[in-house]
Amino acid sequence: MQLGVIADDFTGATDIASFLVRNGMPTVQLNGVPTRDLPLTSEAVVISLKTRSCPAEMAVSQSLAALSWLQAQGCQQFYFKYCSTFDSTAQGNIGPVLDALLAELGETRTVISPALPVNGRTVYQGYLFVGEQLLNESGMRHHPVTPMEDAHLGRLIERQGRGKAALIAWPIVARSPPRWRQSTIRRCAMWCSTPSANRICSPRAWRCGR
């Protein structure tokens, strides 16, 4: 099994599962963490949790349980699926879960890219847009559980996570993949951080993945 996805809600899990299947990757979606091994033959598994707005400690515990199960199934790569509008507060849950997953995997950095251009969510110069509006100028500003009062991903993740964020801006993403990787490595080494990648059109997502 190549890819294990940990999604913070059912809708997000369904979205990413459908995208994977549509792009030729056989995928199984599971509701919650299984209590036993399963004889799966798919290339990807998506585990749907309910951790978007629960207490951060619970979100971390359930996400780590999902990671442990996916590792036991032989997954080689892992993806944390959170909302494309980055639904969270200064207490989490995106930052605490990312920190916990990185620590468990023995990693120190990851790429944050919530953009989903097909649904009008794009990132430019570190700012998240909903359609033509900045995140904090959209209806998400008045969300009853996770009011989004800032659109800058670096600031959002630094408030709730342990790392420092470095921007990988559009001119870098638009370069050839080797130069993109080199620039990313330099920024990660300089900041020892969680970089935020700009996304304004879907084909660039393949460069992020590589």
Question: Short summary of the structure?
Answer:
This protein is α/β, with parallel strands linked by helices. It has 7 helices and 9 strands, in the order βαββαβαβββαβααβα. It has helices at residues 10-22, 56-72, 94-105, 153-160, 170-173, 177-191, 204-209, and strands at 3-7, 27-31, 44-48, 77-81, 121-124, 127-130, 133-134, 167-168, 196-197.
Tally of helical segments: 7
Q: Can you summarize the main beta sheet?
A: 4 strands, parallel
Instruction: Output the CATH topology of the largest domain.
Output: Rossmann fold
CATH first level of the largest domain: Alpha Beta
| Secondary-structure-derived class | alpha/beta
Strand content: 15-25%
Sum up the overall morphology in one term. Answer: globular
Rg, Cα atoms, Å: 16 Å
**How many strand units?**
9
Fraction of residues in H or I helices: 25-40%
Low-confidence residue ranges: 189-193, 201-207
Topology of this structure?
Layout (H helix, E strand, L loop, with lengths): L2 E5 L2 H13 L4 E5 L12 E5 L7 H17 L4 E5 L12 H12 L15 E4 L2 E4 L2 E2 L18 H8 L6 E2 L1 H4 L3 H15 L4 E2 L6 H6 L1
Parallel strand pairs: 1-3, 1-4, 2-3, 8-9
Antiparallel strand pairs: 5-6, 6-7
Describe, in plain words, how this protein is organized in 3D.
- This protein has 210 residues and is α/β, with parallel strands linked by helices.
- Helix content is 36%, strand content 16%.
- It has two domains: 1-81, no CATH class; 110-210, Rossmann fold (3-Layer(aba) Sandwich).
- The chain is built from seven helices and nine strands; from the N terminus they run βαββαβαβββαβααβα.
- β5 and β6 (127-130) form a beta hairpin.
- α2 packs parallel to α3 (94-105).
